[in-house]
Amino acid sequence: MIDVDVIADPEAATAALDPIRARLLAELREPASAAALAERVGLPRQKVNYHLRALESHGLVALAGEKRWGGLTERKMVATASSYVVSPDALGPAAVDPERNMDRLAASYLVALAARVVRELGQLQRKSAECNKRLATLSIDTKVRFRSAEARAAFSRELTAAVTALVSRYHDESAPGGRRHRLIVGAYPTPGTAKERKTT
Fold it and tell me: Residue 131 needs a FRET pair 20 to 30 A away by CA distance; which of 46, 122, 162, 184 works?
């Protein structure tokens, strides 16, 4: 089981987004039989089996083991990932694309960048798994509280200058065997409590 699976196939995305199937995926972080799942989610076993077959056909669950009870065989299923995210690829031409003419200071542009990260990392993750290689990435996640709009603007200028200096220092267009990496820096207000939203 992998940590996160990026779903690019539209039919698989449709299957995963169905409320009942999404619940089954969540329940199947640990192997379970259709009978055990039926008891947990309050559905007939036959209906659970129907949904499990649909999830299995899209590679979202897999057989974890079988146990024989007399003349019957109990199949235990498990989700193929701990959690899932739907790639913009699943939307085809309707998916957001930051390469389109967009306002780079708008929230929609940051959303488009984040969507591209999901799409590209999903593709790279699948390729890495096929080649049985680790995918090299770097993530930084932090929070900063600005005392004023002026402080936020100053931070933005300094951050831009720092990133530009680092890229200039380490970028080598002619390095043999070098590999390009995409670097994205974004900032947005964190969703807070109602009290916090009133004071900001």
Answer: 184
| Residue range(s) in the chain whose domain bears CATH number 1.10.10.10 | 2-84
Express each pLDDT in 99-128 by its tens digit.
887 888 899 999 999 999 999 999 999 999
Secondary structure letter of residue 31 according to DSSP: -
Question: Bridge-partner residues for 2, per DSSP?
Answer: 81
Alpha helix positions (H), the chain? 10-17, 19-27, 34-41, 45-57, 107-131, 149-170, 194-199
Give pTM, 2 decimals. 0.81
For residue 32, give Cα distances in angstroms to 105, 146, 176.
47, 48, 50
Strands 61-69 and 72-79: antiparallel
CATH architecture of 2-84: Orthogonal Bundle (1.10)
Residue 63, helix vs strand vs coil: strand
The SS3 call for residue 49 is helix
